[in-house]
Amino acid sequence: MHFLITAGGTREYIDPVRFISNASSGRMGCALVRAALRAGHKVTLITAPSSQHVPAGVTLIKVETASEMFQAVKRHFAKCDCLIMAAAVADYAPARPAKTKMKKTANLLTLKLRPTADILKWAGSHKNSGQVVAGFALEDKALKRRAEKKMLEKNLDMIVANTPEAIAAERSTVWIKTACADWTKIENASKQTIARKIIRTIERR
Predict the structure, then answer these.
(1) What is the number of alpha carbons within 13 Å of residue 28 lying toward its C-beta?
(2) What pLDDT, in 10s, does the model give residues 171-193?
């Protein structure tokens, strides 16, 4: 199979040197890359800034913003058998980034934010009958109910649900659901163990 995997946390710039981001380490995305490579698959990785080491043998595409990640996914989606959106893509970006560095003043600063493009929803609506689209849902309450709603609304084949405690952690608990099966819980496991389970589940589809 040819896996298209996204990783890392996007940066949405306020001015040329300041940005809004999140605490994603990119660890889960890179674990998925390693698991797919070890299973003998071809992998294209689209990654936002991350401190993780990218294994050899992968086609690497570096991006920074949600918009850049969306454009990269659109360019490569048709050639993949499976898209796994493990990146923490920003939901909002500054509506009008400053072209030069903003100077600090004693006044309050108000930022107007605009929603970013929904990459998962786009992929779910453009996939062909042979493609698999998998996403992640980070929820702090009603986790499975909200994740299942996301799965249905975005026409996903798989959803991996976790809590904020998973961010940048080496181990975490996740719940996995596919379109044709009920929830499976993986408790307090390494990201690599979780990644192997995700890849095996997709292979069975």
Answers:
(1) 30
(2) 899 999 999 899 999 999 999 99
- Residue that is written with structure tokens 């040197």 in the block: 17
The span from the CA of 94 to the CA of 41, in Å, is: 38
pTM, full prediction = 0.94
Q: Give dist(CA 137, CA 124) in Å, integer.
A: 15
Tokens 């986790």 locate to 143
Please name which of 89, 104, 81 lies closest in space to residue 20, comparing C-alpha atoms.
89
C-alpha separations of 132 from 23, 45, 105, 167, 203 in Å:
27, 16, 50, 25, 10
Q: Of 22, 128, 155, 188, which is the active-site residue?
A: 22
Residue 99 located in a structural domain:
no
pLDDT at 137: 95
User: Is the CB of residue 84 less than 8 Å from the CB of residue 6?
Assistant: yes
Q: Is 22 a catalytic residue?
A: yes
CATH, residue 190: 3.40.50.10300
Q: For residue 30, what pLDDT is reported? A: 95
In a domain, 115, yes or no: yes
